[in-house]
């Protein structure tokens, strides 16, 4: 079966490096599905889950990774994701993600009630999206 390599790198190093038969990521232009021999591409990523369908030799299951923005590059059967931060579903601390969600929701309420600067509201909204993304990916393993 045809496959490609998936690498996910953050400033802390490589967090994912495996063979896959299919990948789905959300770019700023919409959802992107990747199969072997995909045309070369570079695109900015949105904060979202990346689904990686493993080869049959690796059990054929899917891995999930919470990606907090970055870029995806596809070239020569290698998919490289360079992200500000990313976590596999196995490495997400659910209680920490739930606390981050609560903090972000509180900051959003405070920013709205006090007519805080738009930048504070925007940061809180992004933090909330990241926390929800992490929780969604963590729940994929259950």
Automatic annotation (TrEMBL):
Gene: atpC
Function: Produces ATP from ADP in the presence of a proton gradient across the membrane.
Protein name per the record: ATP synthase epsilon chain
Protein origin, superkingdom: Bacteria
InterPro entries linked: ATP_F1_dsu/esu_C_sf, ATP_synth_F1_dsu/esu, ATP_synth_F1_dsu/esu_N, ATP_synth_F1_esu_C, ATPsynth_dsu/esu_N
Taxon lineage: Bacteria, Bacillati, Bacillota, Bacilli, Lactobacillales
Quaternary structure (record): F-type ATPases have 2 components, CF(1) - the catalytic core - and CF(0) - the membrane proton channel. CF(1) has five subunits: alpha(3), beta(3), gamma(1), delta(1), epsilon(1). CF(0) has three main subunits: a, b and c.
Entry annotated with the keyword Transport: yes
Start and end residues of each ATP synthase F1 complex delta/epsilon subunit N-terminal domain: 6-86
Keywords associated with the record: ATP synthesis, Cell membrane, CF(1), Coiled coil, Hydrogen ion transport, Ion transport, Membrane, Transport
